[in-house]
Design brief:
about 220 residues, outer membrane lipoprotein receptor (LolB), chain A, twelve-stranded antiparallel beta sheet, about 20% helix, about 40% strand, globular
């Protein structure tokens, strides 16, 4: 079950988003935000995100596995609609679609459909919470189950690094890093580092805000 859950998480938050594997603190051109800067950032992020009801964007995914020297690259479309609706639709390298709607997740892998009740899978449910917190600008509200650090990139973007403390999650997920663009506060990169040393990086481009007006892409049969 753990291996199955890890595969789902990788493909799902498969935004998924990382050209680097090392520690953020050690990277040139980044610095930790002061407490005052963190407060300013989270306040602004919350204000901007409160007006976002939907996001639609293209994405590319780069996956690095310990046993392979080359990156595996996929591309597709990402959709989000407040509050509990997510879709990752892979168009290249593989035909794959993942939809979350409320407490249900649907995986369509080349026509093989599987529906999962998230209430029965605590780890995947927790990962859904992390993704939603990223796009809703509520990472700072995750609570004591996570260690959260904030960094400024040279470009002005802010990287929020989330490290799970719960063993049930940290046994599979080492770290999630979310990059917010300056001014717009939209998520441009999301990086998932697994305990297995696999790294999945999602790059989001051409974001369209508040253009989705129905649930057509989020139906789970």
């Amino acid at each position: 079950m753990k291996r199955f859950s890890a595969n789902i998480i990788t493909l799902t938050f498969t935004i998924s988003i990382l050209a680097f594997v090392g520690e953020l603190k050690a990277q040139e051109g980044r610095k930790a935000l002061s407490q005052a800067e963190v407060t300013e950032f989270t306040t602004s992020l919350k204000r901007v995100s409160s007006s976002i009801n939907s996001i639609e964007s293209s994405f590319s995914q780069e996956k690095i596995l310990p046993m392979f020297s080359k990156k595996m690259v996929s591309q597709g479309v990402f959709r989000y609609r407040r509050e509990n609706k997510l879709e990752f639709y892979y168009k290249t390298r593989m035909k794959y679609r993942m939809v979350i709607n409320g407490t249900k997740m649907m995986i369509d892998n080349g026509g093989k459909v599987q529906i999962i009740n998230l209430d029965n899978n605590a780890v995947v449910k927790e990962m859904k919470t992390l993704i939603q917190a990223s796009f809703l600008g509520k990472l700072h509200e995750l609570g004591d189950s996570y260690s959260i650090s904030y960094f400024n990139e040279r470009s002005g973007a802010v990287v929020v690094e989330v490290i799970p403390k719960l063993k049930s999650v940290s046994d599979m997920i080492k770290k999630i890093s979310v990059t917010f663009e300056p001014s717009s506060y939209v998520v441009s990169r999301l990086v998932l580092e697994e305990a297995s040393k696999s790294v999945t990086t999602y790059y989001f481009k051409n974001q369209q805000i508040n253009t989705i007006n129905n649930d057509e892409n989020f139906h789970i049969k």
